[in-house]
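Hey, resending since the last one bounced:
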Amino acid sequence: MKRILIIEDEKSIAELERDYLEIEGFEVEIITDGKKGLDAALSKPYCLILLDVMLPKVNGFEICKQIRKEKDIPILMVTAKMEDVDKIRGLGLGADDYIVKPFSPSELVARVKAHLARYDRLVRKNVAAYDEVQVRGLHINRTSRHVFINGKEIGLTAKEFDLLLFFAEHPNQVFSKEHLFQRIWGLDSFGDLATVTVHVRKIREKIETNPATPQFIETVWGAGYRFKG
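The C-alpha cells again:
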C-alpha cells in the first residue's frame, strides 16, 4: 500500500484530504507541525507528500527544500494564497505541483494519482536502464540473465553469463586469468586457469561474428583479457 504524508496545520482540511485518499486505497499519516513533519518526511518511507505552505515552526518552503536535498519523491504544495504560487514556481524549491485552497477533493486525488503514476514510470525506466548493459549490438540483462547479440537471443551457461557480464561492466580494463578465476569461480574453487580460457573461447563462439578476430573480448598477450567498450 502506498503511504502518503500530509503536513497541514488545519485539521479539518488534513482530515478531508486523508479521508478521500484512504477511500482510494492509500495509507495516510497527518502531521500538523512543520518541524515534526520535516523529521517524519526525512526518516520514514513515503510515496508522496502533501505539504501546506503556511505551517508553525518551519514553513512549507523550507520543508520542501530540505526534503528535496534528501529524497526524490513527489511533493505537492498546498497554499491558500495565489501570491505563493509565484514563489513556488520561481524559487526552484523542487516541488512537483501546487494546489490552491479551496480545492475539490476529486481534483486533489487526481493530482496525487497522476504524480504517483509519473514517478512510478520514471523509477521503472531507471531500473530498466540499470538492468541492461548495452555495448554495440550486445545486450545483457542483469535481472533476467538474457543475452542478445544483434537482436538474437543466445544461450549461455551460468558461468559464461557471469564472466561476460563482469567483462561488460568493466570495459577497457585488462584482467589476468588468475583475477578472473578468483572473481567468477571464487577463491575456494577447485580447477585451473584453463577454465577461464575455455569459457572465453565458448563466449566468443556465441557472441563474435568471427571468433578468430574478436570484437568484444580480446586477448592481451602475457597479461590476460580485455573487453572492448
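The longest helix spans residues 105-131.

Sorry for the duplicate.
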